[in-house]
Design brief:
Elements lengths: L1 H12 L3 H22 L37 E6 L4 E7 L3 H18 L4 H17 L1 H12 L3 H27 L2 E3 L8 E9 L2 E5 L5 H14 L3 E6 L7 H14 L7 E5 L2 H9 L5 E5 L2 H12 L5 E4 L5 E4 L5 H13 L11 E5 H17 L24 H13 L3 E4 L3 E2 L9 E2 L2 E6 L14 E7 L2 H8 L4 E2 L2 E4 L3 H10 L6 E2 L4 H4 L8 E2 L2 E2 L4 H7 L1 E9 L23
Parallel strand pairs: 5-6, 5-8, 6-7, 8-9, 10-11, 10-18, 11-16, 15-16, 18-19
Antiparallel strand pairs: 1-2, 3-4, 4-22, 9-21, 12-15, 13-14, 17-20
Helix pairs in contact: 4-6, 4-8, 5-6, 6-7, 6-17, 7-8, 9-10
């Protein structure tokens, strides 16, 4: 302290303090300038959306029997609006020769992209993020036209989720992929040990049709930030919108000075998907779809031992205890069932309500489900549409059979239960919002993913009963628990055999992009989103080096080959 006081006195005496302050301020200014120089800004660009996405567009022919199949033409995909049955045109299916060429172009581009800095990759994501926020309406309209969803559902499921993923990756991606220093242990204390996350190369994503924008662009965000190129196999059911999404990503790359060949979109039928997963030039596969197709993906990928991440849907439950806040719970569960016509991997497909609250809950849900209005949001007054169309019209027979099976075993169908013939859009693909109550675990609908607007309500007595009923299903993706008792809510949620759980909410874990997304059981394995999702697209390389250049691993003479004394050795 004495020396410090003397130093300060000396500095004051010689007027050095202003100099010190000036140096400190100058250092801060230089740091800020340097930091700003390293932050590469988003670059604006424009992209015209397809004419068919404009509300009120009616130039296409109404198909008498809407189908993606073009008779005698396996090289074409018929595109149509599921809400109206109106043709959107035909899209050529990717040939296997074209697929090989696209993969090779992606691989060539990736060699340079792997050398880019995280800041260069962030710039591309910032550019894409800026475009998404500035063109939300156009994106929602394109997604709605191709999948029949409402603009509200497109805003929440397409734009909000994609923006959240971009924001999280821009802010946290580098931290997730930084070298991970590890303790080398006592014997190796002279070594530095760490895990290095390196790009895999060319990864692939085979994605489902329920969210055409988010499902295709989401994997691109993670792949690019991890230093990979990517081939996206889009579903043939939403092939019409794919060129718009592809151009969007390629433009973002191009205006930032990078090769747009990094991202390749392909579309087609099962043969194209199988060729992607079986390709020896694909280094990782992410698949979003059904358990049945997931097994086929694993089989094809196994030919080259290509690692896979599988998200195979769910039969998500919501457990509602009698002490739950019903004013909050009921609207949340309505959205969990009706949003996107329940074509959600984490849609609420089973609601278990405690016996004391059961009758009141059922009465309120009956009132609400009867009031849900179906329609085509780009053709009708959007203020009069709550729920849109379904992408797969051919699944209606299956849904009706599941409802009929439950009713035959004692369930009551209070609302809906069958396909809906829309008076203004008779060729549209609508299923009536359905309320099925008194459902029990032996009914097939509790073990089969419906992917439709069917609210299944079951009754339980206590925690054990609720858990037993939930675990009667082989799925294990997401889940929700509603209770006024926070301790019970947390306790039950942690006992559920699922990959994700929310207390007093539904699906919000996916908006929290810091969290991994995935399930257990026949819901698949592996994770995307969060640090785990980024790292899954990397080679996790174990790395050691000498901590000090003059301290190296010696080989004692007694174990130096050829060993001189085998007995001592």
């Amino acid at each position: 302290m004495c020396h410090l006081s003397q130093l300060v006195t000396q500095m004051q005496g010689c007027d050095a303090l202003p100099v010190v302050v000036a140096v400190a301020v100058g250092s801060v200014v230089l740091y800020v300038i340097f930091f700003r120089a390293r932050t590469l800004p988003a670059i604006p660009f424009e992209l015209k959306p397809p004419a068919q996405s404009v509300p009120g567009w009616r130039s296409g022919e109404i198909l008498s029997n809407p189908s993606i199949i073009v008779k005698d033409r396996s090289d074409l995909i018929q595109c149509f609006d599921p809400a109206t049955g109106r043709s959107l045109g035909q899209v050529p299916a990717t040939t296997l020769t074209e697929l090989d060429d696209k993969i090779q172009r992606a691989r060539n581009a990736q060699k340079t992209w792997a050398l880019t800095s995280f800041e260069q990759r962030r710039q591309v994501l910032r550019t894409l993020h800026k475009f998404v926020l500035g063109h939300q309406r156009e994106i929602c309209q394109v997604a709605s036209r191709d999948s029949g969803k409402t603009l509200v559902d497109a805003t929440l499921g397409e734009v909000l989720t994609t923006a959240a993923k971009l924001q999280w990756t821009i802010k946290n991606g580098e931290k997730a992929l930084q070298d991970d220093e590890r303790d080398p242990g006592f014997m190796m204390m002279y070594k530095r040990a760490k895990v290095v996350y390196q790009p895999r190369g060319v990864v692939a994503a085979l994605v489902s049709w329920n969210y055409p924008f988010h499902n295709t662009v989401g994997p691109v965000i993670s792949a690019l930030f991890a230093g990979n190129a990517i081939v996206v196999k889009a579903s043939e059911h939403v092939a019409w919108s794919m060129p718009y999404w592809e151009q969007m990503v390629k433009r973002a790359l191009n205006v930032c000075g990078h090769n747009p060949d990094l991202v390749q979109f392909v579309t087609g039928f099962a043969d194209v998907g199988n060729a992607v997963t079986a390709s020896p030039n694909i280094d990782h596969v992410t698949f979003i779809g059904s358990p049945e197709v997931g097994k086929l993906v694993m089989r094809a990928a196994s030919a080259n031992l290509t690692p896979v991440t599988l998200e195979l849907g769910g039969k998500d439950c919501a457990i509602v205890f009698a002490d739950a806040d019903m004013k909050q719970c009921v609207p949340v569960l309505m959205r969990g069932v009706v949003q996107n016509a329940s074509q959600n991997c984490i849609g609420i497909e089973r609601i278990l309500v405690q016996a004391q609250a059961y009758d009141g809950f059922v009465a309120e849900m009956e009132r609400r489900m009867r009031a849900v209005r179906l329609g085509a949001v780009l053709d009708d007054d959007p203020r009069e549409v709550d729920c849109g169309a379904m992408v797969l019209g051919y699944c209606f027979d299956r849904l009706e059979a599941l409802v009929a099976d439950a009713v035959s075993k004692g369930a009551r169908c209070l609302v809906g239960g069958q396909a809906y013939k829309h008076p203004r859009h008779p060729q549209g693909q609508y299923f009536a919002p359905t309320l099925l109550v008194d459902v029990t675990p032996e009914m097939e609908i509790t073990r089969t993913e419906t992917f439709g607007p069917i609210m299944v309500v079951m009754k339980f007595t206590d925690e054990k009963d609720a858990l037993d009923q939930v675990h009667s299903s082989p799925y294990g993706l997401g889940s929700s628990v509603f209770s006024g008792d926070r301790g019970r809510g947390r306790r039950v949620a942690l006992k559920l055999r699922t990959g994700m759980a929310n207390v007093n909410d539904f699906g919000v874990n996916y908006i929290c992009q810091a969290l991994p997304f995935g399930g257990v059981g026949i819901s698949g394995f592996g994770r995307f989103a969060g640090p785990e999702g980024l790292r899954a697209l990397c080679v996790e390389k174990a790395f050691t080096e000498d901590r000090l250049p003059f301290v190296k691993t010696p080989i004692p003479p007694i174990v130096d080959y050829p060993i001189q004394d085998a007995e001592k050795g």
